[in-house]
Write a structure and sequence with these properties.
Elements lengths: L1 H22 L3 H33 L1 H20 L2
């Protein structure tokens, strides 16, 4: 929960830094602000995706274990090939 709030604060800080760079014609501040903003947005998207996966695993644990076993088997077969 605090992670989402922290991401939002970082996004707003990035927007502010980007706007400051625009007002002062400082491309370095613009780039840093945009990078901070987009990194925070990406972090939010990853957190939301992880929450969805967690819910699906909690709702269908047998299905989740079966999928994990299948992926592990596939990776093992690919690595074991010579």
């Amino acid at each position: 929960m605090f992670g989402k709030a922290e991401d939002k604060v970082k996004e707003i800080a990035g927007e502010a830094q980007e706007k400051y760079g625009e007002l002062t014609d400082d491309s370095c501040h613009q780039a840093k602000g945009a990078a901070r903003k987009y990194a925070a947005q990406g972090n939010q998207a990853v957190r939301e995706a992880a929450d969805v996966v967690k819910e699906h695993v909690e709702d269908n644990p047998l299905k989740a274990v079966s999928i994990a076993a299948g992926v592990g088997l596939l990776i093992g077969l690919l690595i074991g090939r010579k």
